[in-house]
Amino acid sequence: MIISKVDFMVRAELDQQTLEIWLQEEWLVPQQAEPEPAFSEADLARAHLIRELKQDLGVNDEGVGVVLNLLDQVHSLRRAMAMLLDSSRAGGPNDGEPK
Amino acid sequence: MKDPYEILGLERTASPDEIRKAYRRLAKKLHPDLNPGDKSAEDRFKDVSAANALLSDPEKRRQFDAGEIDASGAERAQQRYYKDYAGRAGGGTQYENPSGFADFDRGDDIFAELFRQQAERARRAPGMDQHYRLTIDLLDAVNGASKRLTLPHGGSIDVTIPPGVQEGQTLRLRGKGAPSAGEGPAGDALVEITIAPHKVFERRGDDIHLELPVTLGEAALGGRVKAPTPSGLVLVTVPKGSNTGAVLRLKGKGAPRRGGGHGDAFVRLKIMLPDKPNAELEAFLAEWKPGSDYDPRREMAT
């Protein structure tokens, strides 16, 4: 589902200036940036996460970038691991769809 | 739910600052996005954030301390965490960063091949299911109806309520959930039904129970009276000498049964005197000698 910039700011409870900074920092990287950024539900959940990191967990701006970078690696690893397990259960990478 | 003070490990005298610190300490450990594989952390985090929501609001905390509200309060809408998108089988996000295992790949292209297949699968993966709740009238639940559900972020979907739907039943509307991120089919909308109480009818399973007021004359002499049922008015024969509490069964006038047929309606009679005192009735009763066996309290003898 595509979310416009205005809807995104409302649903993520962000003001324009904060959103610009987050985009600049590449904490948020919408898949479509031009002419207007178009966001996804995953971007929205990520914005909530950033807000919770800053407000609830007391992570400062430097820390947010570090946390996100590590989290992105964790998710890639988790998915690579899941794929390896899937393909080894299915008998090899060319064995078609996992369930 | 457990005591919110206990969940956060606090004394009841804790200051707002202590509450904030305790929450922060636990959230750092338990936040679902920092524990993407740990379901138990997510469950505990739910308790912790509910406890924090209660105690960090001075008014709610005061009400809780005074025993005016219990710890469960109102449940927050289920939050979607970032991990629910990033960790999805079949999906992934543009934020992925495979540099964490780039050094595993010793010339064989196993990861590249896996990621290519994965991307292909993601493109064809269906959208996510979305959950909604809809409250309907008892009559709509019994008879079926068509309802429009307004979505929280604009738009609406039409929901066809099948006759005889039950409290808590979930209707699945295929293809009415979130669209696919790629070219797959949309997910489903799952609508959980809540049935509002009705002022006349009470539903028990497939049966309908109602109380029907009758006049003294209708009860004593018998007669035909109109009674409401979920499918409309029906003529009911009140037998001569019916008392308050007598139950008449109207076969097949209840809610539709799963797999065919209908439940029954049960009509409980209730004798009503005229709204205003009636001189004739009073004069008659003053003269009336019903005899010594008319003692409605004989069963209560002490």
In brief:
The complex is a heterodimer of chains A (99) and B (302). Chain A has one domain: Multidrug-efflux Transporter Regulator, Chain: A, Domain 2. Helices cover 63% and strands 0% of the residues of chain A.
Give an account of the 3D structure:
The complex is a heterodimer of chains A (99) and B (302). Chain A is mainly α and 99 residues long. Chain A has one domain (5-90): Multidrug-efflux Transporter Regulator, Chain: A, Domain 2 (Orthogonal Bundle), CATH 1.10.1660.10. Chain A is built from four helices and no strands. Chain A has helices spanning 5-12, 16-24, 41-55, 61-90. The longest helix of chain A is centred in the C-terminal third of the chain and has 30 residues, at 61-90. Chain A is globular, with a radius of gyration of 17 Å. The two termini of chain A are 25 Å apart. Residues 93-99 of chain A have low confidence and may be disordered. The two termini of chain B are 45 Å apart. Chain B has helices spanning 4-8, 16-30, 39-55, 58-65, 82-86, 110-124, 138-143, 216-221, 279-287, and strands at residues 130-136, 145-150, 156-161, 170-173, 189-195, 202-204, 207-215, 223-229, 232-238, 247-250, 265-272. Chain B is of the alpha+beta class and 302 residues long. Chain B has a four-stranded mixed beta sheet. Chain B has a three-stranded mixed beta sheet with strand order 1-5-4. The mean pLDDT of chain B is 86. Chain B folds into four domains: 4-85, DnaJ domain (Helix Hairpins); 88-124, no CATH class; 130-195, HSP40/DNAj peptide-binding domain (Sandwich), CATH 2.60.260; 202-300, Urease metallochaperone UreE, N-terminal domain (HSP40/DNAj peptide-binding domain). In chain B, a hairpin with a 2-residue loop joins strand 6 and strand 7 (207-215). Chain B is 28% helix and 23% strand. Chain B is elongated and about 110 Å long. Classes of the chains: A mainly alpha (99), B alpha+beta (302). Chains A and B meet through helix 3 and helix 4 of A and helix 2, helix 5 and helix 6 of B.
